[in-house]
Amino acid sequence: MVKPDGVQRGLTGEIIQRFEKRGYKMVGCKMVWPSKELLEKHYADLSGQPFFAGLIAFMATGPVVAMVWEGKEIIKMGRMMLGATNPQESAPGTLRGDYSIDVTRNIIHGSDGVDIAKKEIGLWFKPEEMFDYKSCLKEMVYE
Ligand code: UDP
Ligand code: MG
């Protein structure tokens, strides 16, 4: 998900391109201005953290771009492409390491496990907003 700061800064295209160019397949994409209720469900595991209220408040300041990507080890590789949570520790070459400085404005969210991804997809997407299509990537990207 491109966070509100990523959308405002015009980084949506760059973020999508990084995943497209690597060879991942987009199967869902939409702009959403999330309610606090949705965000509280999305970040429920962090509700006890001191930064929770500030995180929810910031995430509700504007629209985000929610996406679902498919590909080999996409969760693990996607997390590597994002970089560390705190941009001060994100390596150059990662999205956060190239485009962000402070932790609450780290431009992008990525699911960090298969079960979490399923939960998050269920929160953000209706089944008819996801697309099962044949892409040419299968022959050209994978052995
Ligand atoms: N966050 C924050 N302060 C912190 C830690 C995290 O504002 O001290 C924010 C940050 O934007 C992060 C989000 O909370 O992306 C979710 O935290 P998580 O630990 O799940 O990191 P992520 O999975 O996004 O790397
Ligand atoms: Mg997380």
UniProtKB/TrEMBL annotation:
Catalytic residues (positions): 109
Region forming the signal peptide: none
InterPro entries xrefs: NDK-like_dom, NDK-like_dom_sf, Nucleoside_diP_kinase, Nucleoside_diP_kinase_AS
Keyword annotations of the record: ATP-binding, Kinase, Membrane, Nucleotide-binding, Transferase, Transmembrane, Transmembrane helix
Reactions performed catalytically: a 2'-deoxyribonucleoside 5'-diphosphate + ATP = a 2'-deoxyribonucleoside 5'-triphosphate + ADP
Segments forming domain Nucleoside diphosphate kinase-like: 1-132
Record carries keyword Methyltransferase: no
Cofactor section: Mg(2+)
Entry EC number(s): 2.7.4.6
Binding site for ATP: 3, 51, 79, 85, 96, 106
Residue ranges of the TM segments: 51-69
MF term (GO), any: ATP binding
One of the GO BP terms on file: CTP biosynthetic process
NCBIfam families, sorted: PRK00668.1
PANTHER family: NUCLEOSIDE DIPHOSPHATE KINASE (PTHR11349)
Similarity remark: Belongs to the NDK family.
Protein name: Nucleoside diphosphate kinase
Source organism: Pinctada imbricata
